[in-house]
Structures are given as C-alpha cells and as structure tokens.
Amino acid sequence: MLPDPSPTAPHSRAATPRRRRTALRRRTAAVLAVTLASGLALSGCATAGSDVVTIQFMQNKPEAVEYFADLVQRFEEENPDIRVVQGNSEAALVPGLIRGTPPDVTTRGWAYASADFAAKGIYADLSDLEAADRVDPSAQELVNSWGQYNGTEVSALPFSLAGAGVIYNEAIFAQFGVEVPTTWDEFVAACEVFAANGVTPVYGTYKDSWTLAQGLFDYTTGGLVDVAAFYAPPEDGAAPVTRSYTKTFAPAVEKMKTILSYTQKGAATRSYPDGNAAFAKGEAAMYFQGPWALSEINGINPDMQIGTFALPMTNDPADTKARVNVDSALSILRTTEHPAEARRFVEFLMQPEVVEAFNTDHAAFSPLTDAPAQANPQIAGLDPLFKAGRYYQGAVTYMPPAVPAQNYIQYFAGTGNGEGLLRNLDEDTQRVADRLVPTTTN
Amino acid sequence: MTLPTLLEAPPRDAGPAPAAAPPRRHARLDRTYLVMLVPVLALFSLFIVFPALTGVLFSFTNYAGYGDWKFIGALNYVNMFKDPTILQAYLFTFFFALVSTLVVNVLSLALALALNAKIKWRTGMRTLFFIPMVLSGLVVAYVFNYLFSNTIPALADSLGFTPLASSILSDERFAWIAVVFVTVWQAAPGVTIIYLAGLQSIPGEVHEAAELDGAGGFRKFASITLPLILGYLVINVILGFKGYLGAYEIIVALTGGGPGTATQSVAMKIFSGFTGGDYAYQMANAVVFFIITVAISLFQLRIIQRRGVSL
C-alpha cells in the first residue's frame, strides 16, 4: 500500500488526498509546494458537491491586499460554504469580460472608466441590498452622478472616499499667527503674509501635470462651479448637452492665476516627490495634495504637525467644499454565476464596522450615514464637510481620457494663457463627443 | 585591435541575397528551405500580419477596446484629419526625426573620423564611446530628466547664467532640444560603428594616392572618404529616420509629451488610444502612420537601388 513516490500523477493523488498524506512528507520542498497547491485547489472542487462556492474578488488597492486577505478569511470563517479568491489586477477585467470569465465581485475607483463599464451594463443592480440603505445618499450620488444603467440601477456601492484639500504646515501657520482661512480673501491674505516673510505660500510641482490637475484645477473649479451639474449626462432621449468651459470656468481660471503667483520660483521643474520632500522639510506653508501625499510626508518627517483644510473659493464660508473621489466602490458583475453568494460577500464588506475600520486605517472617509468622526488629525479638518455631504468630484475626473486635460493645465501653468486652456478643453471635448456619438447610439 | 576586427565591414558586393532562387527550384523545393521558411512565415503571420489586419479592421469601427462595436465606415479617418492635436503630433514627429537624423549623422561621422585616426588608446576610446548604446533609452532619459531638472539649473544658477537657470524640459519652446539631445546621445554610438566600418573598408592606397596628388585634409574627405562611404551614409540616414519616426520611450521618460502637448509624438498619440477608450480612432491613426512610413521607405529604397547599395 505504499504510494508511488513519483510526482507524475497529481490527479489520482489529489482524488484521494488523505491516503497520500504520508507520502507527501517524504517529498522535497518544491514538490511539496506544488502538490499542496494542487491539493488545495482540488479540495475546493472535491467539496463542491457539498456546496462550497468559489467567488473571484478583484480588489483594486495594492496597498490593501493583506487587509482584504484578513477580511476574506473572516468572511470564510463565518460563511464556510463560500470561498473567496482575491485578485489585484484591474487590467485583467477587460480580458476577463472578453473571454466571458470576469470576476464576480470587484472594487474599483469610481470615475470615468468605471462609469463607462457601468453604462455598458456589465454590473448588477445593488439597490435592493440592505447595505445600500446605509450609504449616505450624497456619497451614493457620487457614483450615480456618472449616469445610472437603465436610469435607476445602482452599479456600485461606495466603500472608501478619499478627501483632498490644502495640506498645511501648522508650525509655519502658528509662527506667523495665521489662522486656517475660511474665505478666499483670508486665503490670499495668508499667502501675502507668508510671501512677505520669505516663506513660499504654496509649493508647486508643475512638472508632474497630474498634481496641477487634481490640486490647482480641481480645487478652484470645484469651489466655484457645480461640477456634477456641469458634467451631468443628458436625460434619456434629450439632445447632447453643450458644455462651455470658456463660459463656466473663466472665473476659476482667474483665481488659478492668483494661486500660481504664490508658488515658488522654479515650480515648473519640481515633481511630486520633490514637493513631498520640500514640504516635509518645511520649505512651504501649504501644499495642494490629497491624503496619498501624507504617508510620504510622514515618512520623511514623522514629527511634522500637518493639517488639511478645503480651499475656500468664495467669501462665504458656507460655499467651501472638499474634493472627494470614490477611491473604492463595490460592484457585482451581472454575469456572475453565484449572485446570492456575491451579495452575501458585499453585505459582509459593507458592514459599518468593516467600512469604518478600513477608512480609519487608510486616512479616508466612510461613505455610510452616521459614520463616527475621523480621528486622524491630519485630515480631520475635512470631517465637518464630509459629515454635511459638502464635497465634489474633481472636474478633471469627469473628462474623457482622450482629452489631455493635464497637459493643457500644465501648458496654462507655464504660459498663463487661461483662454487657451479653456479653448483647448472646449474644442477637444467637442471633437471627442463628435466621434463618440456613434458608440452611444449603438 | 579587437573592435576594428569585430566591426570589419562585409565586402560590398557580398550582401545577403535571400531573393536568389535556389538552383534546383524547378526540380523540387529544397526541404531545408521549407524547414527554415515555413515556421518563420507562420510565426510572422500569427504575431504580426494577423494582429495588424485586425487593427485595420477595427479602424473602421467604433470599438473602444471592449464591449459592443459596429462599422462606422471611414468616420475615424475623417475625424482624424480634422483633429489639430493629431496634426501637431505629426508635425512634431517629422520635425524631430529630421533634426535627429541630421545631428546624429553629422556628429557620428565626425566621431568615426576621429576614432579612425591615429590616436592614443584608440580601442579604449572606441569602447568608451560605445557605452551609451548598451544602456536602455528609458534609463538614459530618466537620468537626463534629473540632470535637466535639477543639476543643470542649479549649476547655471550658481554661475549666474540665467538662460539655463530654469529647466529646459519645462519650456515648451525648447523642450524638443532636450529630446533631440538625449536621442542623439543614445543613438550616436550605433551610427558611429557603421561609419567606422565604412571608413575601414576604404583601402589605404586610395588615401596615399590622394596625398601624392597633393590633396589636403578636407579635399581628401570630400573627394575620397565621403564618396566611398556613401552607402553607409544612406543606410544610416534611412534606418535612423525610420527609427526616429517611432520615437516613444525617450519622450515619455523626459517630458511625457509636455510641457502642454509640445513634444507629443505620433506613437504616443496612438498608444493613448488603449487607455483612453479611443482604440478604433487611434487605430485609424496607426494605419495612416503605417502608410506614410511605407511610402517613405519605398522612396528611400528607390534611392538605395539607384546607389547600388543593399541593406
């Protein structure tokens, strides 16, 4: 009854895993690993008869792989009839769709590309999940504002919101007796104080054009324009909306020029890592970046006192809003073979304690109603705005990728030609709309 | 003399002649011939011809790279010709390819002449000048990105030389100079090697005869050296120009197409279609670019044939 030690028949071995266990011990480490892996995979299959279902989970945040692995383990313990396999390649989604083997559950950042998938109907409707009722309506609106499939469907539930604003050096603010500005005039006055004392008011990193787009451009336009309304898709059957950047964004561009004048000399040659390093060394009072920069800055200067405030764009503090993006939203693929199990997994992830623990750990904001206050002092300044639902998604995130908006904004920062920037955006948007019309009337 | 022997030019008239028919062609096909040809043809068709034809097909659709699609005729082509950003990319690419070809060849020829002269440590020098060719263009461009953005401005600033105190990469009028500079820096060694091979193929007697006739340095170069290496010049110009038309990685690593859209090449524009949902549109762009490249190549081949040079 001694098992055959040669690793030539993995199938027969795995078919009777228990009997072969003694033989396994004798094998070399490499063979053992391979055999174990196939044994595991097959034990999933073997028990499939006893109703263990495997669902594929595509998770988009590489920094949170282990975090989600723990969550998956907890879920599997509570639900022994479901196995969850976590994958992290967002690029594999489209090939999966083409082959007809997409994942069952996904998390994605929700912006243009995800909304485009939703518009093609690849996601199931989640509106009747229990968890859907716990999501703050204004957070859900961030997803829905991109357009809803069939007019009413909810293609994704927001899981994590990233709030971005002006990161400021508390020590420099205190040194010159500057309070956190709540109006545009106070902001300009603060910049004047810093400039007069030889401190760079705002650190600019124009070399990385995305920093200009998400900071300067999105903050100023988000504070002055109703961004969601500007980009609202046309009602069904209505004529395509004509949007004019030149008409709507001109006041914001004027204020961008003011802010640009308060950035350091040579900002055009500075990149995002340069900016993080310079800000961490106290070379500037303010820095237009999101929470992703905080971990970089903390890494360089762990003792630094940092806060975040939303850039006030008018002289009424009630107008001030924070820039938000849906960093992670949960969806179920319409084609999944295990809709009930996928829904149980989504319900598990959307439990208040799971959502809130994740967002506290990742310097993000919970999209649920009645979320506790954000305890992280570095972003707590945005918390009241999130509580009140006073936030907007950046204008640049709404633009089709075929419009090289970041390059145009960089061009504007270098030349000061605001009219050119808005004209470029208008003309490109029109051209892209012209050639995408056949797709939408498919 | 390791390098020179390595770089020995093949005899002028012994170029490969793949088109030459095997002698027993009419009797029966040589099996060796088939064994060599068929797998290559199959792989080439599978990995080059078939995907290319698929791309051409999709250029007549509204395909976004995924999802449904339908044929929309030549609409992508019509829209393309109305798109000034594409026109700008074409203008930049051709301008860049012309300038780079010119600079690379002038510089490399000068370098080859110097390295072929009787100088000290000639082999060592040749090796030294060969090094840039070993480095990846992307790596070189990232290093120069740092030099242009940090080192040179800091140096210029401390020397009080204001024109260079700001990075050349952030100036949309001059960023192309940086792109050309790095391209030349990286491409010159390969071109120099071909010129060196050419120079070594010139028999010494020709120069001696010219000297006996009283020709000076410049006269010898213009009347003896240049005509004798003309074939090498033509090859360098043609291969170089074709290569620079496809400029991509050096620009991506240096400027990312910026500042603004000042240094966007056609290849970058085409590639943007994969992430921008503009797949079919940029496929049309790729087809047009392909036709233009083929036309240029055919034109150049005619010149080559007239010169009696074979690639």
Count of all domains of chain A: 3
Query: Number of domains in the coordinates of chain B?
Result: 1
Helix content of chain B: over 70%
CATH architecture label name of the largest domain in chain A: 3-Layer(aba) Sandwich
Low-confidence parts of chain A lasting 5 or more residues at pLDDT below 50? 1-49, 438-442
Pfam family, one (chain A): SBP_bac_1
Signal peptide (chain A): 1-48
Organism (chain A): Cryobacterium lactosi
Keywords (chain A): Cell membrane, Lipoprotein, Membrane, Palmitate, Signal
Layout of helices and strands:
The complex is a heterodimer of chains A (442) and B (311).
Chain A: H1 10-15, H2 21-26, H3 29-46, E1 53-58, H4 65-78, E2 82-87, H5 93-99, E3 105-110, H6 112-119, H7 130-134, H8 137-144, E4 157-169, H9 170-175, H10 184-196, E5 200-203, H11 209-224, H12 227-230, H13 245-260, H14 272-280, E6 284-289, H15 291-300, E7 306-309, E8 322-332, H16 339-349, H17 352-361, H18 383-387, E9 391-393, H19 395-398, H20 405-415, H21 418-440
Helix pairs in contact in A: 11-13, 11-20, 13-21, 14-15, 20-21
Chain B: H1 2-6, H2 31-58, H3 75-81, H4 84-116, H5 122-134, H6 137-159, H7 175-200, H8 204-212, H9 217-228, H10 230-245, H11 249-254, H12 266-276, H13 279-307
Helix pairs in contact in B: 3-13, 4-7, 4-10, 5-7, 6-7, 7-10, 10-13, 12-13
How would you sum up this structure, described in words?
The complex is a heterodimer of chains A (442) and B (311). With 442 residues, chain A is an alpha/beta fold. Chain A folds into three domains: 1-50, no CATH class; 51-161 and 326-361, Periplasmic binding protein-like II (D-Maltodextrin-Binding Protein, domain 2, 3-Layer(aba) Sandwich), CATH 3.40.190.10; 162-324 and 379-440, Periplasmic binding protein-like II (D-Maltodextrin-Binding Protein, domain 2). Chain A has helices spanning 10-15, 21-26, 29-46, 65-78, 93-99, 112-119, 130-134, 137-144, 170-175, 184-196, 209-224, 227-230, 245-260, 272-280, 291-300, 339-349, 352-361, 383-387, 395-398, 405-415, 418-440, and strands at residues 53-58, 82-87, 105-110, 157-169, 200-203, 284-289, 306-309, 322-332, 391-393. In chain A, strands 1, 2, 3, 4, 5, 6, 7, 8 and 9 form a nine-stranded mixed beta sheet that branches. In chain A, α11 (209-224) packs across α13 and α14 (272-280) crosses α15 (291-300). Residues 1-49 and 438-442 of chain A have low confidence and may be disordered. Chain B has 311 residues and is mainly alpha-helical. Chain B has one domain (2-20, 83-307): Orthogonal Bundle (MetI-like fold). Chain B contains 13 helices and no strands. The longest helix of chain B has 33 residues, at 84-116. The radius of gyration of chain B is 24 Å and the shape is globular. The two termini of chain B are 26 Å apart. Residues 1-18 of chain B have low confidence and may be disordered. Chain A: Keywords: Cell membrane, Lipoprotein, Membrane, Palmitate, Signal. Chain A: InterPro entries: Bact_solute-bd_prot1, SBP.
